[in-house]
Design a protein that fits this description.
This protein is an alpha+beta fold. The protein is 71% helix and 13% strand.
Amino acid sequence: MPKLKLTKTALKAQRDALKQFRRFLPTLQLKKQQLQMEMRTCQAKLRKNEEEEKKLRTNLDSWVSLFGSPGAVEELAGIFKLDGIISSRQNVAGVNVPVFKGIQTRITEYDLFRTDFWYDDALTALAKIFELRAEHEIIEEQYRLIGHELRVTTQRVNLFEKVKIPECRDNIRKIQIYLGDMDTAGVARSKIAKKKTQETAA
């Protein structure tokens, strides 16, 4: 850290820096609050997603044993294909995060007369489970990105609140004391010089 200069120029620089830190701090604090809110929103979305999948799986329990019929799972896997996850990007509290839009699935045509009656329900349930899992992954990524930004923002808030602003105040106080002492010493020297001049003249 460079040595503090005890000059009027340095005093002005410290006052300007303090003014700048005070101006930016509320913006950072607001961003921190927004990020904390977004983190809570992500947590709520994740819980809702997990509850929906759990509920769906519970509903499937009544006929999931049908998957045990010979070749059923392999046949379903051949019929149902996940082609991709559809997402976009969105700015959330200054963070560019992915937003879940849906999934792209492909269902190969199958003979309705040769397959079991529950295939349609199974395919619908599979699609929903894949959709919930894909959405869960996207929300987890949101949570991770927002969490990273929150850590960085919190560090900046702490830096301003606990280091930079107190440091500037302390520097301003030191410079003011020094300049005040110099003014006092200057006045004292001036009086001494005046007195000597008067004594010499006498």
